[in-house]
Amino acid sequence: MELMVTTAFYSTNPGPFDDCVLYDQENHISTAIWEGQERGALRCHEHTSKLDRWMLTQKQIELIRKAGFGYLRLIPAISLDNPMISALVERWRRETNTFHLTVGEMTVTLEDVAYLIGLPIDGDPVIGVTYTSCHAVCVKYLGRAPDPRNTSGGMVKLSWLKDTFSHCPVDASIEEVECYTRAYLLYLVGSTIFSTTTGNKVPVMYLPLFEDFEEAGKYAWGAAALSFLYRALGNASLKSQSSISGCLTLLQCWSYYHLDIGRPRLHHDPIHECFPFVLRWKGKQNGPTSNRDITLYRKTLDCLTSSDVDWCPYVNISFTVIPESILSSLILGRAKTMLVCFDKAERHLPDRCLKQFGMVQTIPENVQIWERKTRGVDGGVDLITKMQSEVNEWSNRRFNIVEAEEDTEESEYMQWYIRITRRFVGRPVPISSVFQRMNAALRDVANLVDTISTYGMNDQQIQTVSRIRYIVHGCLNDKVRSSPAVPSPQNDLGKKAKGKARGKEMLRKDTEKRRKKGNSVDHEGMRKCIKKGNSEYHEGTRKHRNKGNSEYHASLVTAEQSCRPPSESNDAESINDAPNYPRLMD
């Protein structure tokens, strides 16, 4: 019964009921999907496949280690699962920098960055001067400049870097070795953590940060990588976008560790014997993924339960394999701060995903809205001045560590969360276009009558407004298997004439009575109202439903089956090879 009610309710309203948190819902991709406007899988831009073509000398490897990229250079070439990444993006909200899942909010934290790709998450912010031309900066830091065919404004082609600098001469001077190493580092960040949607170019503004390799190692490259990924996820979550960049290997492996969705079976034992932990997924993997599309991943996420989530996947790791430099900075995973990567400043909000740190989730503080700045077109701009407030917030990171609250229960959080989140992305049931238009009109009427104030009305007028509200909500509910209406934040507005306290008490008693008596009173009341004054409307609704909407009722059965274990649904087997396919509700 709970499955039926929830499916029915969210068929007409997937949320949010209160837009105080997700205030940009209109521009989010989930709005377009709900309206039947599919964009398909995103184009994913990352270029790890050619990193192994660089023949690095021992001198270069030592310089790379000093610069803080000793572990990132080990990043494997993992085939990206574009449909899975796209389905995750549909759950990302740029208002909170978190994934809004059915079980609560989750996100990629600084802790995940440190464990998975081994970049330093503590240090100076990655920020500097922007450029609109490549020639001068390339000559200064690489010893040569690309021809105009290999540049575009302040960006240089990755292919030029590889073709020109992938083999350092054996007899190269120290200055030449440094130039070749800077070229590799620019290629590395442009292929992974700072990959762009251009697909084959990287900004040269990172080069001056590699002038001194010891100084380069003092930057918080991991924080910059996460800021870049947050911005990329936020952009890709808008319905106007069709591609995504950033460190998608980090995102995909984060999902493998935390969510039992699309996770491949491994040839080797899944033990943490190597660092960074992204190496766990290196090499050939078992399990078919080619037959999975974004719709199937979306359905799986819509049916996600707590049993499908590993909130703390690193808890049993042997810390002997983790470098001391990483261990000493892990506390920053709980730092509520601003992440900086040149013009990209994004909020890191671990207080919204406390369960990822083994804590009980409580209602988080409101997110302070911040300005997402851009570089613009001017070259030679030092962003430190432009981003001073964001840099200051990062400097105070260790003073803003989120701590657990005592004597708290998660039930209060979930009641709040369901009101402010977008619970479903895909429709649990397909709806015909005619029926969809009629439902939209009824929802408009319901929203309108819910906003009518009964102040100053006489008893007859109040009764009329209440009756209209009851009929409209009843008919909306009747169209989804005649399920009882689920209380919403707006449903008791018509009772304000008797006083706010009295209205709440009536609603509580009515809800308890319906629960005890199987909703018989509610259905009887609705039938009497319809029979007494709305027979024409009800008859027309029934005719339309019987005539043009049989496919809708059949689809309800399909929707219910799609969230059952594999033994009850073949569809489930194609989504996830695991034996426990997620149900809609725990």
From TrEMBL:
Q: Outline the segment boundaries, as ranges, of region: Disordered.
A: 479-586
Q: This protein's superkingdom? A: Eukaryota
* Pfam families documented for this protein: PMD
Location of the Aminotransferase-like plant mobile domain = 68-417
Q: Name one GO biological process term.
A: meristem maintenance
- List the biased-composition ranges (Basic and acidic residues): 502-540
InterPro entries for this protein:
AminoTfrase-like_pln_mobile, MAIN-like
Name of this protein: Aminotransferase-like plant mobile domain-containing protein
